[in-house]
Amino acid sequence: MTADRAAARVHPAELLLLASVFVVAACGLVYELAAGALASYLLGDSVLQFSTVIGAYLFAMGLGSWLSRYVERELVAVFLRVELLVGAIGGGMPAALFVAHSSLPASASAEFRVLLYGLVGVIGVLVGLEIPLVMRLLKRQFSERYVLRDLVSQVLTFDYLGALVVAVAFPLLLVPHLGLIRTGLFFGLLNAAVAVWALWLFRAELPHWRRTALACAVVVALLLAGFAGANRLTTWAEDRFYGEQTIYRETSPYQRVVVTQGPAGTRLFLNGNLQFHSRDEYRYHEALVHPALAAQGAPRRVLILGGGDGMALREVLKHPSVEQVTLVELDPRMTQLFRDEPRLAALNAHALSSPKLRLVNADAFTWLESHDEVFDAIVIDFPDPTNFAIGKLYSTSFYTLVDQHLAAGGYAVVQTTSPLIARQSFWTVVATIEAVGLGATPYHAHVPSFGEWGFVLASRRPWRAPTALPPGLRFLSLDGLPALFHFPPDMARVDAEPNRLSTQGLVHTFEAEWGRVHQ
């Protein structure tokens, strides 16, 4: 064998070091994504939270890379300690944030943010130390194989490959199957595994091998214990946060879904925000659906956007003229849950099993853009505009699409937050609907779980009060209907600019108005 061929052979230790680059890159990105996702779930406004978390994380990584220049002695020992610290802190971060959010009072959002960004900063510094240390180990061990450019090229190739794999796997495989807490702990174990093989690979040059081996064993044991008890921890944290027994919980690719059961009834939470309480949801859903459908007269084709719990569909099916209902819901887990789980299916009267239903799991904005069907009534039941992903569904661009799918004599109705608590936000939605040329008729209803809640009818013809309502309603009546359209002075119209897709001012307004409630 020639000297050149011998030099070209890859040493097993070199492969292990390059594999460690892949692993630490994957772990580092998982911690970054987990922090951003948790911040979005727990604090709202996904774009703001992801932007600030990623910015803080990258800055901390840069600081860690700069600090690596001061590591001059015991290179292997320092690398080992860094891996153990990253594994312990990064792996435990999602669990720590869940527990902190459940334990801190609602008014302590500032303290939670300090913890969040403190953990992001510490993990970022440690992750920033990793790659420079690995590069120096490679250069020291295999100096005959590497010039600087080849070393950087090789290391960055594995670094970016690790980031690519995790970027795809995180939303599609890891979070749906493991959940955020177990995902963090699993990758913490991978960091610890890197420390264990480094302990074995460089055992001859570690002065305190037994002590380091004990530290590795402790970290691995803690992470394994956390992984095994993740479900119990999540249950404890969410039961404490929601104050009732949690009967269903799941992190889908789109949101955290939690259903609780208490003496007063069943509640649904999405990303920590209450969506309905079974004791009074009928008030909300009757007010949402019937003023529009009854005024239309005899709607045959109805479109529901959102409303994956099937409650709005239940009310729509009370109109005998309805022949087909198309329900467009982004999250398939929502529609599966409220169709297949007996206790929840009973709440919507098994509406999601109706032969009149055509169920579509898709983004409502995209679906409207790609279809040209026209409907007699459109019921828009989205969550509040807490972030830009939802805020686009309250924009002029979206309502233009709604207009294109609404029959000339039809009505659309939009759930539109509280005109009392978020007065500016409510009238912003009214102004946005008017900006696309539709007539807007606002109204409100009292729902005890939410307080005063607002809705807006949108149409090309003036709204006229219906002469009949479906039988068996528990809240709405013909005599009481006019009161819903009267706004007292503290909810009366205020000047507001339309919400446009390019700026999404509604999200900022909504966050500011509801933020004052929790101060």
Short key terms for the protein model shown above:
alpha/beta; 7-stranded mixed β-sheet; 4-stranded antiparallel β-sheet; elongated; disordered N terminus; SAM-dependent_MTases_sf
Question: What order do the helices and strands come in, and which of them pair?
Answer:
Elements: H1 3-8, H2 12-43, H3 46-67, H4 75-103, H5 109-141, H6 148-201, H7 209-228, H8 230-242, E1 245-251, E2 256-262, E3 265-270, E4 273-277, H9 281-296, E5 301-306, H10 311-316, E6 324-328, H11 332-340, H12 342-347, E7 357-360, H13 364-370, E8 375-381, H14 388-391, H15 396-405, E9 406-415, H16 423-435, E10 439-447, E11 451-459, H17 505-517
Parallel strand pairs: 5-6, 5-8, 6-7, 8-9
Antiparallel strand pairs: 1-2, 2-3, 3-4, 9-11, 10-11
Helix pairs in contact: 2-3, 2-4, 2-5, 2-6, 3-5, 4-5, 4-6, 4-7, 4-8, 5-6, 6-7, 16-17
Account of the protein in words:
With 519 residues, the protein is of the alpha/beta class. The protein has 17 helices and eleven strands. The strands form two sheets. A seven-stranded mixed sheet has the order 7-6-5-8-9-11-10, sandwiched between helices. A four-stranded antiparallel sheet has the order 1-2-3-4. α2 runs antiparallel to α5 and α16 (423-435) runs antiparallel to α17. Mean pLDDT is 87; it is low at 1-8.
